[in-house]
Every structure is written in structure tokens, then in C-alpha cells.
Design a protein that fits this description.
By secondary structure, this protein is an all-alpha fold. The protein has 20 helices and no strands. The chain folds into two domains: 212 residues, MFS general substrate transporter like domains (Growth Hormone, Chain: A); 216 residues, Growth Hormone, Chain: A (Up-down Bundle), CATH 1.20.1250. Keywords: Membrane, Transmembrane, Transmembrane helix, Transport.
Length: 461
């Protein structure tokens, strides 16, 4: 009995796989995954927009709201990420992702039904647990849909679409809140008495069945290994080096540790500065939230568009010269330029100068974000890819969580008396991390090439 993730590929899709081109069904699949991502953003965004109403309705403190929106979600997401990656590497990834959609939607529904703070905290944490599978599974599915020649374009399109859907999600959440109040008179007597934030939670999960069905219209070209015969293994797939993560990590520990360490330090350094920039603009340069929002919104839009162009066409140019090392080289070049940007921030004397420097920084960060998934996807064979992405997600979440408080401690203890002390603290923490990350990525180039080749052989076997 075979264990498959899709029906036998058609002749057109087989030809596309061999040539590296993408069949129309692959772009359709990417569109479905983008819409599912939008659903996740909406489900998460409605909690953000309704946080104040929830606080008043349930008489919560700001600390309790912070736990509900941040800590609980992060902890459960970290705990769930690898197990979901493990499932996605062993079973139909569409089925696992549909299960994630069902889990986080059920958790959103439970949040609307919660009658106490502990129940609400657990429900919102389970939203994070369900959404923890989204990134590992999507980035594991993209190589199943696109050949190598189109994979960077697909990753960049998904990253670009995710940026756009993130902004669209907030707008949709605002619309849902207004729509709920508009239709309240049409609801049953019991529903009319509920708080608006509860009705909003109920409303955003309505598309869930449709999204789950849409996932099963995706056609994947990868075929999972056959199950072993019951007579020899009792119906379970026998463990092998190709489907177990520990042997693979041991064989390629040097390349993987350099890559994980380099990317991890980059994420830490970027977040050490990025998480404090809004405060720095207000404290050092006197910028209001309105000024900051208008400028940064435009800046992110332009940087995302230009970063997309560079990640697609720039990588084609770099690939012709660096071959398989191109993704890693693009990453460490971005990190090196970011170090210069952060150093220049210390010399800025006006908000306009800071905006110009930050524009370059956002462009570099956006480009790195679009190149990084392709580099990570190439490091493991198909049967390990979701787990590898999950491991990186757990590491990233931890580093993102600790960077802001470390900067705060450095600022409080060493630079509190200086007008631009927070900026100095952020740059002081970020630059050493980025330099370490760049050094690890440079070392990773040669090791990366050998590991990618081994991953290709593992996928082909």
C-alpha cells in the first residue's frame, strides 16, 4: 500500500518538474496558501484590535493583556512548531495544514466563548499553537510545487503577498468589527446580547471550512515513501536516515550550525534595533506616532517592492557567478551592509537622516527575508524540510523574544544619562551579533554547497 500526498502527477506537471518550470496549478496552490495566511493574520489581528474592549469587559490588567497577546502565544507556538513539522514530514502536508487551520479557528471560537481569564489565555495560546505550523508547512510545500529555477520567485511572491495580506488583514478586521455591529439586529436574541468582541471572534472563523476544502484542491508532485509491509513492521514506516532528523543533523552539523547560528544572530541583531526604533524616533528625534506611521508605511511599501525585484533578478545574476552558494552570499552581503547602516544611525542628527538610513535597512532586511527561505529549503531533503524550518522558527522566536529586553538592560545600566542612550544601546547590542552572524554565514558558504548536494540526493532517493 502506498502513502501519497497527491494523485499521480499529470504529464504536464511531470514535464514542469523536470524542466524546473512551474505549472499553472503551482501558482494556484501558492494563491491558496496566501489566502490561508491571510486567514491566520485576520484571526490574530482581531485579538489585537479588540484587546482594549476585552480588557474592559473582563476587567483585566495591562499585564494580563500582555500575557494574552504575547507570552502565552509565543510559548505555545514554540512548543507546537516542531511537532507540527514532524507531522508534516510524515503525512500529507495539506492534511496537516488543514488540521492547523481547524485548531487555530477552534481556538478563536473558544476565545469568543471564554467566561474567565484563564480560559481566554489558554484559548489565545492555542491560536498561536495552531498558527505555529503555518510557516514550516508552507515553506516545505513550496519546493514540492516549484522547480529550482522558479523557487526563489515563488518564495519572494509569497513573502510579498504575506506583507500585503498582513496590512489587508488589519483592514479586514476593522471591517469585521463594524459589520458585526451592523448585523447585530438581525441575529437571534441570545447573540444580540453578546459583547461585540465575542461576535467578532465568531465572524472571523466563518471562512474556515472553505479554506480547509481549498487546501485539498492543491496538487503536490512529491510522492511519500511506501509504507512497509505489516508482516515486517506492523504497518509502521521503518525508521531510516532519510526520514530521521537526528542522523541528518549529525552528518551535516557544521553547515547547519553555521547557517542556524548566522541567521539566528542576524535575526537577533535586526530585532535589537528594529524593535526599539519607534521609541528612538519619539525619544531622540521628537517624532509623533502620526508622523512615524505615515513615513514608515510608505517606506515599507517601497522597500518591499524593491526588495522583491532584487531577490528575484539580483539572485539570478548572483547565481550565475556563485552557483549554489548564491543564497548564502546574498545573506551575508545584506548583513554586512546592515552593520554599516546601524553605525551610520549613531551619526544621524535629524529624523530625516534616520529615515533615509532606515529605508536602506528595511530594504536589506526585506531582501534577506525573501532570500532566506530558499536557502533554508535547500538544506534538507523533502522528508526533513518541515522539521528543519520548524527548528529555525523555534530558534528565531527565542532570539526575537530576548533581543528587546537585553537592549533595555544595556540602556538602563550604561547609557541612561545620554540623550541618545537607547539608540547607542541598540546599536551596541546589534552590531556584534551581526558581525558574528556574517562570519558564520561566510564560513557556511563552502559547507552549504556540500549539504545542499546531499539534500538533493536524499530527495531523489
Amino acid at each position: 500500500m502506498s502513502f501519497t500526498t497527491s494523485s499521480q502527477p499529470s504529464a504536464a506537471r511531470q514535464a514542469a518538474a523536470r524542466s524546473g518550470d512551474a505549472a499553472p496549478s503551482a501558482w494556484y496552490a501558492l494563491a491558496v496558501l496566501t489566502v490561508v495566511t491571510l486567514l491566520a493574520f485576520v484571526d490574530r489581528g482581531v485579538l489585537v484590535l479588540q484587546a482594549e474592549q476585552i480588557r474592559k469587559s473582563m476587567d483585566l490588567s495591562d499585564f494580563q493583556v500582555g500575557l494574552m497577546q504575547g507570552t502565552g502565544v509565543a510559548i505555545f507556538a514554540g512548543l507546537a512548531s516542531y511537532p507540527l513539522g514532524w507531522l508534516a514530514d510524515r503525512f500529507d502536508r495539506r492534511l496537516v495544514l488543514a488540521g492547523c487551520v481547524l485548531l487555530w479557528s477552534a481556538a478563536v471560537l473558544a476565545s469568543g466563548l471564554a467566561q474567565s481569564y484563564p480560559m481566554l489565555l489558554l484559548s489565545t495560546a492555542l491560536v498561536g499553537a495552531g498558527e505555529a505550523g503555518l510557516v514550516p508547512i508552507v515553506y516545505a510545500m513550496i519546493p514540492e510545487l516549484f522547480g529550482e529555477s522558479k523557487r526563489q520567485t515563488a518564495n519572494s511572491v509569497y513573502a510579498l503577498a504575506s506583507q500585503a495580506t498582513g496590512a489587508l488583514a488589519l483592514a479586514l478586521c476593522g471591517w469585521v468589527v463594524g459589520w458585526v455591529e451592523a448585523v447585530r439586529p438581525l441575529l437571534g436574541a441570545e447573540l444580540q446580547l453578546l459583547d461585540g468582541w465575542r461576535l467578532s471572534f465568531f465572524a472571523v472563523v466563518l471562512p474556515t471550512p472553505l479554506m480547509m476544502l481549498a487546501l485539498f484542491t492543491i496538487r503536490l508532485r512529491r510522492r511519500m515513501p511506501k509504507r512497509a509491509e505489516p508482516a515486517t513492521t506492523g504497518g509502521r514506516r521503518p525508521p531510516s536516515a532519510e526520514v530521521r532528523v537526528t542522523p541528518y543533523l549529525r552528518r551535516h552539523w557544521q553547515a547547519l550550525s553555521c547557517f542556524f547560528g548566522g541567521v539566528g544572530m542576524t535575526i537577533f541583531g535586526f530585532n535589537a534595533v528594529g524593535s526599539w526604533l519607534a521609541v528612538i524616533y519619539a525619544r531622540v528625534f521628537g517624532q509623533t506616532p502620526q508622523q512615524l506611521g505615515a513615513v514608515l508605511g510608505t517606506m515599507v511599501l517601497v522597500a518591499t517592492a524593491t526588495g522583491f525585484v532584487l531577490s528575484v533578478y539580483g539572485m539570478r545574476f548572483l547565481s550565475r557567478r556563485a552557483g549554489m552558494r548564491a543564497n548564502i552570499r546574498a545573506l551575508w552581503i545584506s548583513v554586512a551592509t546592515a552593520v554599516l547602516c546601524f553605525a551610520m544611525m549613531l551619526l544621524a542628527t535629524s529624523a530625516h537622516q534616520m529615515y533615509a538610513i532606515q529605508g536602506l535597512y528595511i530594504f536589506l532586511m526585506t531582501t534577506a527575508v525573501m532570500v532566506y527561505p530558499t536557502a533554508l529549503q535547500s538544506l534538507a531533503p523533502d522528508a526533513l524540510r518541515a522539521r528543519l524550518v520548524a527548528l529555525m522558527s523555534v530558534l528565531s522566536a527565542g532570539l526575537v523574544a530576548i533581543a528587546p529586553p537585553i537592549v533595555g538592560l544595556v540602556s538602563d545600566h550604561f547609557f541612561q544619562q545620554r540623550p541618545n542612550g537607547l539608540l547607542i544601546a541598540a546599536v551596541t547590542v546589534a552590531i556584534p551579533a551581526l558581525l558574528l552572524g556574517m562570519a558564520l554565514l561566510i564560513r557556511c558558504e563552502r559547507l552549504y554547497e556540500a549539504t545542499v548536494q546531499a539534500a538533493r540526493e536524499g530527495s531523489a532517493s
